[in-house]
Amino acid sequence: MKKDISKISVKKPHWLRKRLPKGPEYERVRALLAKSSLNTVCQEAKCPNIFECFSKGTATFLIMGNRCTRNCLFCAIAHGPKGPPDPDEPQRLAYSASVMKLDYIVVTSVTRDDLPDGGASVFSRTIEKIRKFIPSGHVEVLIPDFQGDTEALKQVVEAGPDVLNHNIETVPRLYAGIRRGADFKRSIGVLKNTRKISPAMYTKSGLMLGLGEKKDEVIEVFRRLVDAGCSILTLGQYLQPSSGHYPVSRFLPPEEFDEYKKTALHMGFKQVESGPFVRSSFNAGNLYCNMANVIKED
Fold first, then answer.
1. Quick one: which of 54, 48, 56, 65 has its CA closest to 30?
2. pLDDT of 99 over the 60 cut
3. pTM of the model
4. Which of the listed CATH numbers 3.20.20.100, 3.40.50.2000, 3.20.20.70, 3.40.50.300 matches domain 19-297?
5. Beta bridge partners of 109
């Protein structure tokens, strides 16, 4: 008999409760994004850090719409894109980032398997516009896998982001049930090929924990990422967006995240952010700055 995942629930522990910051800065950012018709992963993916980040005047931009061609069971983003990407979006995004006075800009996207290049050209134009509006700024892109298209990847890498992020999300055993349309080896290939195209570029990846993975499986993913040249890692607690999404298997205590961080650093990662509320873009600017300092010292 098939298990009904919507009936499974695990009570949240005390360490996953946080106060929601309030204030004029939060409203200013929300209003600016709405006026500019820009999407953020903070809003669409129901990130638990949205109030904190908006209150600090920052956000992670989501390009190419707010609907995805894939329908992963862990993700809150809606399924089924409608129409081509907005050609004016890169300009509006760059201008808004300059108004927000951002010096570290994180850009991600929905997956657009319906586009010939998977949206690589949109990433490239967005990076170009950000460089124009914020010449001294730094750009991190969190990209999809482009279905393994190395030419599409090359287009993004050659646009010159400071950090290229591609999330591995979970361990290979859980891919079929959680990451529909994705492939573990293909995702590792994105990071490996990035370093081939641009050996000096910082690459980054992240995992959600609490999906039913085993410790030895997580450590093996660490090894595969290090072998692929990945130097920055984020580890966070998976939180079920709704009763129709994949259930939480367990909530890892903060101490376990600390242990994973120690292990990851020992295995060769240069920067690791690990904790229940950590997400891909969490503390991204500081991680980049710390990474740059480590490279200088080496």
1. 54
2. yes
3. 0.91
4. 3.20.20.70
5. 63
